[in-house]
Specification:
Layout lengths: L1 H7 L16 E2 L1 H10 L5 E4 L10 E2 L6 H11 L8 E4 L11 H10 L5 E4 L5 H4 L10
Parallel strand pairs: 1-5, 2-3, 2-4, 4-5
Length: 136
């Protein structure tokens, strides 16, 4: 067991460094207010295993070529300056296999108005348990 904990601390065991800045994070309360007020609601894309946030498009996991292709197709008709929020919520950011590829794709496609929903733990703890709107 101790061996596994030691392995977790080795470089390469966890995901790559963050490819977003703190300014590119949107807080859950801010997005929830936009949704509730129905004002300035961005394009919301789930790149995780579900889409519990109202109005979000469920692209699904983007940790492989098929998922990246789905995300690219979804973004094809969206303005490069549009407000876009992506989220996963499967696990803590440091282990998430989906947010980094999604952000890389947004950068490659030259989008400028994207943000990452700041759910550093998971969608349940950082969104659902706080009483923000859900589709269920």
């Amino acid at each position: 067991m101790l061996f596994l904990f030691m392995l977790a601390g080795l470089p390469g065991w966890s995901q790559a460094a963050e490819n977003w800045t703190s300014k590119q994070l949107i807080e859950p309360a801010a997005l929830a207010k936009m949704i509730t007020d129905k004002r300035d609601v961005p394009v919301i894309i789930s790149v995780g295993p579900g889409a519990p946030i109202p109005g979000s498009v469920n692209v699904g996991m983007v940790n492989n070529a098929e998922g990246i292709g789905k995300l690219k197709k979804e973004l094809a008709g969206v303005s490069k300056q549009a407000g876009i929020v992506i989220y996963c919520g499967c696990c803590p950011f440091e282990h998430c296999p989906n947010v980094r590829p999604a952000i890389d794709m947004l950068k490659q496609m030259q989008f400028t108005g994207y943000q990452l929903l700041n759910i550093p733990n998971n969608i349940k703890k950082d969104w659902i348990d706080k009483g923000y709107p859900t589709t269920n």
